[in-house]
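User: Can you predict the 3D structure of Integral membrane protein? Sequence below.
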Amino acid sequence: MQDTTEGPAETTPDTAPGRPRGLVLSRPVSWFLLAFGVWSWFVWITFVKNLWKDSSGLAFDDAGDPTGYFWIHLLLAITSFLLGSAIGLIGIRGLRASRRN
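Assistant: Sure. Here are the predicted structure tokens for Integral membrane protein:
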């Protein structure tokens, strides 16, 4: 039978005072996430610029109205902007946390 009485709390490296709680990212992983966020913005901004000035007829019809292709790819770009921003922010937070330790 196990002893269920509570004794003094043990301090482990994960629960030591002053230690951040939760996941701690390494500096290389944090830099990778930040670089991924920046890369995502670079790639998708370039793509949206090219999509906007598309003259092949895929993005805009003969009347100059946006096509389904345009709207789907604009939605993909917006989603990638948001995900790239979130991933880059995680990288920034990881770098800031590693400086404090």
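The radius of gyration is 24 Å. The chain has a mean pLDDT of 84.
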